[in-house]
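Exercise 7b. Backbone tokens:
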């Protein structure tokens, strides 16, 4: 699943290039709100009829993803540390340096 601040037209071209099947792709354009606004994440939860405990969330931005999600009760948070944001403490995320490391951690 993807929740992105990109618009619909960008993701319509870029997501197929990833070569993976995604359950859903949501954009800020669809939600009417950009991350880190809680309303963007609430839109995602509503569309999926889901709750925070249903997710393992991987992102490389603490500011746009992890801080808001932590505040909303998401606890399975993983920071893919690409140097985008400083690693901060208090948001209960696990830090990995690569997707290979993440796959090993998840047993994939």
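Sequence design result:
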């Amino acid at each position: 699943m993807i929740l992105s601040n990109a618009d619909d037209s960008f993701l319509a071209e870029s997501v197929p290039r990833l070569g993976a099947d995604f359950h859903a792709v949501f954009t800020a354009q669809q939600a009417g709100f950009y991350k880190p606004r809680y309303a963007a994440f609430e839109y995602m939860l509503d569309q999926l009829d889901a709750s925070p405990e249903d997710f393992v969330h991987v992102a490389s931005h603490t500011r746009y993803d992890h801080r808001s999600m932590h505040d909303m009760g998401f606890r399975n948070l993983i920071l893919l540390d690409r140097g985008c944001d400083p690693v901060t403490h208090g948001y209960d995320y696990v830090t990995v340096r690569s997707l290979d490391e993440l796959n090993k951690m998840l047993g994939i």
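Instructor comment: The helical segments are 8-14, 28-31, 38-48, 62-71, 99-106. The longest helix spans residues 38-48.
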